[in-house]
Specification:
Elements (H helix, E strand, L loop, with lengths): L6 E6 L13 E6 L4 H5 L8 E4 L1 H7 L6 E4 L1 E2 L9 E3 L2 H7 L2 E3 L3 E6 L5 H13 L7 E4 L2 E4 L1 H7 L7 H40 L19 E4 L4 E4 L3 E4 H4 E5 L11 E8 L11 E2 L8 H5 L11 E5 L3 E7 L3 E3 L3 E6 L5 H10 L1 H5 L12 H5 L2 E4 L3 H40 L7 H4 L2
Parallel strand pairs: 2-7, 15-19, 16-18
Antiparallel strand pairs: 1-8, 2-3, 4-6, 4-8, 5-10, 9-10, 11-12, 13-21, 14-20, 17-18, 17-20
Helix pairs in contact: 4-6, 4-12, 6-12
Length: about 425
């Protein structure tokens, strides 16, 4: 049978209006293609609030179990057809939810487990099938969804089999979600520690009391235009770290790619939890490395995307090199890596203002070399902060690697379960 045969109804999208009007009085949260990744990671914080008409509210409201599909967008390497599952957690968190008019949603017929169908759709998407059902208008790719649903086959699995497969896949998804939530909470603690030490200047003084709040001496710094502890210094970033450019080997020569040198592009840092990076989507060979002006960066170098977009920041946990979209920092004392990471993150808006260019803004190496950096004078407190941050970072890296392994396991297991090459163990299906 074809996928079209198992769909009960389609729900079209509505972008609505930004403010309530007489025609659009109903507040709803509108799922866009841009929200698919974050919702899949159980992050509902950035779904925009919109206002729609009474008729749209009646006909387009989504419910738990619906599947939203991106029908317009994509890229040369990413097809349209990305999907997201509307979970009970999303409905409970946001209440009234619709999808945007660049998406469509569907609801499956009785006898079909919606989560199973969603995972089946993911399997099809991961295999690149939807590239075969795309048209293009005005430079935007559009999914020919009717053609796709009428052509793509789905076996009529017994509902018990669907439920078993759904259970094992949801258990992996839940573990990934828990790891992400733990990492998010650890990151909030890490940011608070940075703020407490280096923004409020309430690091522990020699008596263990908060420095500034306890009357620690402060002095006005003209360069930073604020008060800092009296024995702290302001230097140039180039005094604190080497600053390296990246480059891209010629894509016309396939021999430049596929080697064992980790090569990072801004896309590799697009994940919400990109505090660490140790692998990229595409490696390069020694030939590729030698053919361009990219630099090898040791473990604990700090990477910052310097154009399209400016401001993605990550710490290398493997020897890596980057494309030309980065300026990377090798601290002169590698123990300062974690401080440099948070310093750059905290000052990213000021760094963005250094960007110039007509087609797209880029931050130059020369401007970064002259960018001010605060050097802590309270060495014991600074060392204590480094130890606390490294303890948090070590836990986060373990969880990130586990997320990567679980995601790989899920993606490899998915087609095997769907085509019957793997079966669900009894204690997983009945657990």
């Amino acid at each position: 049978m074809i996928i079209a045969d198992i769909i009960k109804t389609f729900i079209s999208g509505d972008w609505g209006s930004e403010e309530p009007t007489e025609e659009t009085p109903n507040a709803v949260y509108c799922v866009r293609g841009a929200d698919i990744v974050s919702i899949s990671n159980n992050d509902f914080s950035n779904i925009p609030l919109r206002y729609i008409s009474d008729k749209s509210l009646e006909n387009r409201l989504l419910q738990s179990g619906d599947i939203v599909v991106e029908k317009s967008g994509g890229s040369p390497t990413q097809s349209t057809g990305r999907a997201v599952f509307i979970s009970e957690e999303l409905i409970k968190a946001k209440g009234q939810v619709v999808c945007s008019n660049f998406c469509t949603a569907f609801r499956v017929k009785d006898g079909w487990n919606p989560y199973f169908v969603y995972q089946y759709w993911q399997n099809i998407y991961n295999a690149g099938v939807f590239f075969n059902f795309e048209g293009k208008t005005s430079g935007i790719k559009n999914l020919q969804i009717d053609n796709a649903l009428s052509a793509i086959q789905i076996e009529h699995y017994p509902i018990s089999h669907q439920n078993q497969i759904s259970k094992i896949l949801s258990s992996i998804e839940n573990k990934i979600c828990i790891n992400r939530q733990i990492n998010d909470n650890l990151e909030k603690i890490a940011k608070q520690l940075y703020d407490y030490w280096f923004v409020q200047f309430d690091f522990p003084d020699e008596n263990g009391r908060p420095y500034k709040s306890s009357g620690g001496k402060m002095v006005y710094n003209k360069r930073l235009k604020r008060e800092i502890p009296i024995d702290w210094q302001v230097k140039n970033l180039i005094d604190f770290a080497e600053i390296k450019n990246g480059a891209t080997p010629s894509t016309a020569d396939e021999a430049n790619y596929g080697g064992d040198i980790v090569w990072i592009t801004p896309k590799d840092l697009s994940d919400q939890q990109s505090k660490f990076v140790y692998q990229g989507e595409r490696n390069i060979t020694k030939q590729g490395f030698d053919s361009c002006s990219t630099s090898m960066l040791p473990v604990n170098s700090v990477l910052m995307s310097s154009r399209a977009p400016i401001g993605l920041v990550s710490i290398a946990k493997h020897d890596v090199c980057t494309n030309q979209g980065f300026k990377s920092f090798i601290p002169k004392n590698m123990e300062d890596s974690i401080f440099l990471y948070y310093y750059i993150k905290h000052h990213i808006k000021q760094i963005e203002q250094l960007g110039s260019g007509t087609t797209f803004k880029e931050v130059s190496r020369d401007d970064l070399c002259k960018f001010p950096i605060l050097i802590a004078g309270a060495k014991n407190a600074y060392k204590q902060w480094i130890e606390l941050q490294n303890g948090i970072a070590d836990k986060q890296l373990i969880l990130k690697k586990e997320i990567t392994a679980l995601t790989k396991q899920r993606d490899e297991l998915l087609p095997l379960l769907m085509n019957g090459q793997a079966s669900v163990n009894y204690h997983l299906s009945n657990g």
